[in-house]
Amino acid sequence: RLEMLLISSLIACILGLVQGEKLLFAQMLWRHGLRTPIGTYSNDPYNEAFFGSHEGELLEEGMKQHFIRGQQLSQ
């Protein structure tokens, strides 16, 4: 479903540009940055202590991904 939404949005933007219309609005969708798991099984060795943060929180790598995405969007 998401793929179809993205493809149809892209086609609509391209058609608007080809016809010489002014782009008034653009929206981007992307996946969140790298996060810790939101749940584990009882004897999982990769628990909260392994990641150093709580369930579902951004990891340092995920924070870097968000920062880089922000830099790309500001250009």
From TrEMBL:
Annotated keywords: Signal
InterPro entries reported in the protein's UniProt record: Acid_Pase_AS (IPR033379), His_PPase_superfam (IPR029033)
Any one Gene Ontology molecular-function term assigned to this protein's record: phosphatase activity
Residues of the signal peptide: 1-20
Keyword Cell membrane annotated: no
Keyword Signal attributed: yes
Protein name: Phosphatase
Organism, scientific name: Pristionchus mayeri
